[in-house]
Amino acid sequence: MTQPPAFDGNRRLAGQTCIVTGAASGIGRAIARLFARHGAHVVVADVTETVLEGGEPTVGLITREGGSAVFRRTDVSDAQAVEALVDEAARLTGRLDVIVNNACIRHARRLTELEEGDWDRVMAVNLKGVFICCRAAARRMLTQEIRNEARGRIVNLSSQHGMIAAPDDLAYGVAKAGVAYLTGQVAADYAGQGIICNAVAPGKIVTGQGGRLLDEAVLDRARRRTPWPRLGHPDDVARAALFLASGEASFVTGINLMVDGGWMAA
Ligand SMILES: NC(=O)c1ccc[n+]([C@@H]2O[C@H](COP(=O)([O-])OP(=O)(O)OC[C@H]3O[C@@H](n4cnc5c(N)ncnc54)[C@H](O)[C@@H]3O)[C@@H](O)[C@H]2O)c1
What confidence tier does 210 reach under pLDDT thresholds 50, 70, 90? Predict the structure, then answer.
């Protein structure tokens, strides 16, 4: 029987090219940083370099830590821009090993208060953006040879919202449900061709976003709902993304891995 390939636990992405969308801030920034520490050439794809939580831009931080990263201004809802991003990333090392589809926007409204234009924009970034990025990455990966059992790996960011209601936040939850579905479908359709596609579903992760997400009532609800005695940190999600992006996750495809301190289990 064929054995799963070996992997280096210390530098799990050594020499690999990895795009991380929405990596200027929050969870994407933590993923980019951890991937770079594991030897990846990281392409930070975002609409801005400004760090929501403050601090120096992701690429500067990674470079200062001895890692390899470049910034490419990209709107994930723009198919042409995403195709150019994938082409350019693949030119770095001759292949695109990993894409992490993390970028998102938020516009929390319940059904009766949600304008069509706002629904469309949330869907354009949070769901269509994931479709566009998966399609561009998969097209590229299909042209690559198999390495460590895979032509390439896709990691999507879903959410526990999308499985259970996101209170007063219809469009976000619907988009995240779509991301979870899309992940399984892509995994099933392309497993035979060596493309691995998984999702990470964070629970409440404290990042730098302001507004409603740092609202004491929202945080209090999250604390009451989360069995683990703290809320999540971006690094909790980054570690799960690293597992799914690396050869350590062998024979794992189509999953939606909860990183939620037990929220969905309680
Ligand atoms: N923070 C949480 O509690 C939580 C919970 C569940 C799921 N998630 C998911 O994790 C991911 C990251 O969340 P976060 O809290 O770090 O978000 P964040 O708001 O801190 O960061 C989102 C990043 O996406 C970028 N972005 C926005 N629109 C873009 C576009 N059109 N193209 C490219 N980049 C764009 C932003 O500039 C920003 O850097 C998202 O997919 C989110 O839905 C987060």
Answer: low
Q: Cα angle vertex 32, ends 29, 35, to 5°?
A: 145
* Best probe residue, ligand 1, of 19, 20, 21, 27 (max atoms within 8 Å of C-beta): 27
* Domains of the chain as residue ranges with CATH: 17-261 (3.40.50.720)
Residue 103's contacts (CB-CB under 8 Å, 6 or more residues apart) are 21, 22, 28, 45, 46, 47, 76, 125, 129
54, with CB counted inside 10 A (0-12, 13-18, 19+), is exposed
The answer to whether 181 is a known catalytic residue is no
**Ranges 5-9, 88-92, 108-112, 179-183: which has the least confidence:** 5-9
Q: What is the pLDDT of residue 216?
A: 86
71, 172, 190, 263: the catalytic one is 172
The strand pair at 68-73 and 41-46 is best described as parallel
Q: Would you state the pLDDT for residue 215? A: 81
Q: How far is residue 80's CA from residue 185's CA, in Å, rounded to a whole number?
A: 23
Q: Which residues pair with 218 in a beta bridge?
A: none
> Which mutation among 43, 49, 72, 104 tests ligand 1's pocket best, with the greatest number of atoms within 8 A of CB?
104
How far is Cα 34 from Cα 160, in angstroms, rounded to an integer? 23
> In this predicted model, what pLDDT tens digit does every residue of 215-239 receive, in sequence order?
888 899 999 999 999 999 999 999 9
User: What spacing in Å lies between the alpha carbon of 189 and ligand 1's midpoint?
Assistant: 27
CB of 76 within 6 A of ligand 1: the answer is yes
